[in-house]
User: Fold SDR family oxidoreductase from Nocardioides marmoriginsengisoli.
Amino acid sequence: MSTPRTILVTGTNGVVGRLVAERFATAGHRVTGLDLTQPETPIDGVRHLAADLADEVAVTAAIDGLRADGTTIEVLVNCAALFGDYHATHRIALETWDRYMQVNARGPFLLMREVLPDMVAAGFGRIVNVASISSVQGGYRQAHYAASKAALIGLSNTVALEYGPRGITSNCVLPGVIDVPRLADAPADVREHALGTVPSRRWAQPDEVAAAVEYLAGDESGYVNGVQLPVDGGSALLQLRFSRELRLGE
Assistant:
């Protein structure tokens, strides 16, 4: 990305969100990170805001606060997400389902709705949503997560259709399982099943996902709109398979 931009990255307390913000800041962009809480360790060159992304009032206040400081967002990257809570579909509590939908789909919608008018006025915008390969393949014991990320793809594609004529692109990155510390919390059968669907036979590295985000946010990707870019080691080539060890009630 050659032209300096004003960029908002959500989920900067997470590994991927933090890496994305760091890459943009290092490249000389004006970067704001947004997450539920302030980070324990600030990122050099990144301003941090704290807000519940599923809270309409909080999201509006955050964007209004940026505008009051003379900052209008040119690039929005939605990295924030809930992940985990591995249950067979019939065991997923409604509260769990609702919270995943609120954070993973409602939150990006609220932010996109807030920043799109400024992007339209500027005649330029980049929106990059970090979804998941499970949003198109399904996610074993993760119906709540897969469904929320599928909703994010539908939202992203619609924005691409509606706002492409205004110089705005909206794209998704679809990571496979990312090698982050939280991966160790996943049940062994979930990890084994996921790795068995990856031709590369390894997990995605956070910087590989961040690099894909950076490309879709850049000036050079202006003719890339409404895509879902897998960063999954080739697992999109395979049909979702259930091994003989998997049991419905687990």
